[in-house]
Amino acid sequence: MKTIKIIIVDDHPTFRKGLIVQLKEIDGVTVIGEASNGKEFIDSFLNLNPDLVFMDIQMLEMNGIEATKLATSKNPSIKIIVISASGDEESLNSMLDAGAKGFLLKNVETEGISQAIKSVMCGKNYFSPELLSILANQYVEKPSPYNEKEIIRFSKREIEVLQLLTEGLKNREIADKLFLSPRTIERHRENIIIKSGAKNIVGILTYAIKNKLINI
Description:
Layout: E1 4-9, H1 13-23, E2 29-35, H2 38-48, E3 52-55, H3 64-74, E4 79-84, H4 89-98, E5 102-105, H5 110-121, E6 126-127, H6 129-138, H7 156-166, H8 171-178, H9 182-196, H10 201-210
Parallel strand pairs: 1-2, 1-3, 3-4, 4-5, 5-6
Helix pairs in contact: 2-3, 3-4, 6-10, 7-9, 8-9
């Protein structure tokens, strides 16, 4: 089995060292480089050619959002796992839009790191349970056209679309999987946003988890 080559991008040397120790406990992975900010990472990653990157968000010179955008534009197959100290919905959604696939908190156990690696290397999204719990507690619905006392019901097809969205599939991929047109998937997605009161995909996900609409 091919060894997964990893780079760690974080502005705290102590954290990088700790993560390296955890990664040494996981079979089939090797750390090939470190960077203290996004610019340092971008300057070296094409030569190092990693399979996966653990990326902090808030860094000087170049933050994780910009670094992720640049990395995924230069190498679309690269996998980015966000590893952050907080569960800020706006930042996480920006990272998701930039191309990140995994999302962990910095206090994650080694088993959680291993699960995230397996998921993203299979092309799926991964959100740690701890992060989902924080997001769900933060989540506040925007005003909905539905009566507050009315039970919001999602169709079977909307639930299917929800599940596939959380797995990291794009509209076109969902359409192919469900044998529907991308336009139909977009309509289902719009209905989900209206019903849930979510602003973005992270909001949709946290609503779905909080209300036990999907399995993760």
